[in-house]
Write a structure and sequence with these properties.
The protein has about 475 residues and is mainly beta. It is built from seven helices and 28 strands. The termini are far apart.
Length: about 475
Amino acid sequence: MSEPTITPWKKYKAPTIDLDPADYVTSETRINAFQHKQIPQKDAAVWEDWSAGSDGKYNFDDSSTLRSGQQLQFTYMQTKVQIPTDYALTEFKVTFSHVDDGARIFVFNSDYIDGKFDPTEVLYGENMRSVDLKDWVKKGEENRVVVVQFDMSQFRNTLKNLQIEVNGSPVAASAPGGTSSPAAAPRLGSLRLVSSTTEPTEPGAGSPVVLDDKPSVELIIDASGSMTYNMEVGKSRWSVAKEVLTKVINEDLNTSMHVALRVFGPSGLSPENETKIERSDNQNTGYTTLLQPLAPLDKSALQSQIEGIRPSGATPIADSIEKVEDDLQDARGQGARSVVVLITDGNENCGGNVLNAINTLKASGVEVVLNVVGFAIQDPNLKARFTTWANAGSGNYYDATDRELFEQELISAINVSYFATPLNGQGGHDGFIDGPAIDIAPGQYFIMVDPEDRQYMKNIGVHEIRAGEPKVIAVERWGS
């Protein structure tokens, strides 16, 4: 039986589009961006060759200076796929990650001359996998697959780890007329970055690389009334969140880090540190409380504070973010970078403007990264809004739809990220300090801690990854 063939991906980055005010795009209306797309013909001269990374996946990660919502820039990616008539096709998917700000997949063939797409689907965020497209592709003829990505805001313009999976396995690209098959797994090495205080000591870690900054973490936790809704059998959202928070604090937070805890929703948690929010144009009265001022992590005390929370009240997210500058005024060291993690199951409802609050915080001079963890969020428009907030805060949006994902995404949101770029410049791999090892192709890699345009990112240097061997690098992540 013959195998599927896939041509190397090609890419076209189109010029910036200036939108009329009536067409401005927001996180809630991002699906409207696609009305401005202009997919080039398959053999148009604008298509450029695009080299895959050492792992066979395709990536781009560019800076962006767009006026948010007022300008768009599309990047088009295409490959041509042949599925033999005698091939037992059970699944066909397009996968990628870290798409900013959205993407849509089109399939062209004799059945779909103008392109087939899902009009309800806009893919964005960390890890994207299309629905099964096996009913869209036609055996015995060329299927043109086009990924249309758009950027609508400043900071980054990205899409990473693009590939096609057939019957559950990635398919390597080949030149036209050649053959390809589900890719044989290359012999990989592995890379892990660990805190110098991580126990037990990792073999091969070597002398710690000292980071210049000593970040602090502020958790902003939603304990509003909606957290009482059921999530699991016999357990509310808050019960699940509390159990996961307790586990992460106990198992994943370094005792030398500094932590602040702010909670919004209920009143009476700590009257001396409580702020009441009332606006004449909004019927909801909100409360936000600095339950734990910034201090060295005391796991037992922090867990006890969380245990005593009883969800109730409204959702004053904007006012909580406005307090961050004061909350972190004692962050350690000149140029200290702080991580703020907002955990919420819903939207602002006390009349505040969250995006304005984030922009004001960023303009205040506080070196801060704001990550947003959406908890049990089903509304795609709300997920899009949270992504916009995270982008404005130079952070990421983490979508946690169940207990397991909440734990994973919370750890990712708190931890400092790193990026390993091969010296040949093709592709790259990202992970986070004290996270799991990542599989990585052999070669020389330039490693940068906290690479997402932070002022105090740290060059870890060039390191060699060898096939079949783990590489562990120790860093003094939090300082002593």
